[in-house]
Design a protein that fits this description.
The protein is mainly β. The chain contains no helices and 17 strands. It is globular and about 45 Å long.
Length: 252
């Protein structure tokens, strides 16, 4: 098994259980960020992190695919004053892209079952551009209506490309509680393209795919994954196990 990084976002007023209470955490778990301030750093070549909560290394919960360790993200029970409306623990690919480059971003991810959702943003992945100052598309945990219930769903910054029922999605129950493998192949710049796939790590079954071709993908971009959500009344704690990162440039 691969030691993973764990992220937990815990709303105000909810008790923050210690890392030792998580059965997946190894006794050698190391705290990387202590949750007392917004902190950031570098895990190793190609991967940075930022966290307003506790970030720990030491989760034996992801199948090994590479030599890069996995991480545990755990947010503190009290939010920073300037982040009162949101909670953030992200891993970021580095360096940022240049127009004309092709990149492949891959990682493993498991969202702990029992997480709540709402119609507010809850990103677990973003393809981000510094040129536009926001995501090009994201993967969110959302509840849009009672009929469909909680979903894991693509959200595109260009609503005309993906809106309403036209956005790929799957029930949250088919995503949470299982290890998934994420792969995103991107050609940055004008005439760019991307293909994003999520597969079940155990069965190899494809759970979701989303792609664009012949489109503008402003460069100076990167991938973010982890937990980044709006704080809403009644929100539960959220925990994700993330790791096995493989971020690499494949063509210049």
């Amino acid at each position: 098994m691969l030691l993973a990084y764990v992220a937990s976002a815990i709303p105000l007023g909810v008790s923050n259980s210690s890392s030792s209470s998580d059965p997946h955490l190894d006794k050698r778990a190391t705290v990387i960020a202590d949750g007392t301030s917004l902190q950031s750093g570098t895990l190793g070549p190609g991967v940075d992190w930022q966290a307003s909560g506790v970030l720990s290394e030491g989760c034996e919960c992801l199948a090994r695919r590479s030599e890069h360790p996995a991480l545990v993200e755990r947010a503190s029970s009290e939010l920073l004053p300037r982040q009162i409306a949101r909670q953030r623990i992200d891993f970021l690919s580095r360096p940022n892209s240049v127009a004309g480059e092709s990149w492949t971003y891959a990682w493993s991810y498991r969202l702990k079952a029992g997480v709540s959702s709402s119609d507010h943003f809850f990103h677990i992945m973003q393809l981000f551009s510094r040129v536009t100052g926001g995501y090009l598309f994201a993967l969110d945990v959302l509840t849009l209506d009672d009929e469909r219930g909680p979903l894991v769903r693509i959200v595109d910054s260009n609503a005309g490309r993906c809106s309403g029922s036209g956005c790929p999605s799957l029930p949250l129950s088919r995503f949470a509680g299982r290890t998934t493998r994420h792969e995103l192949r991107v050609k940055w710049g004008e005439g760019g393209s991307f293909t994003y796939t999520i597969t079940d790590s155990s069965s190899g079954a494809r759970l979701l795919t989303y792609s664009r071709s012949g489109t503008s993908l402003p460069a100076n971009g990167y991938v973010k994954t982890g937990l980044y959500r709006a704080v809403v009344p009644g929100a539960t704690s959220a925990t994700a196990y993330v790791g096995d990162f493989n971020f690499r440039k494949t063509a210049s």
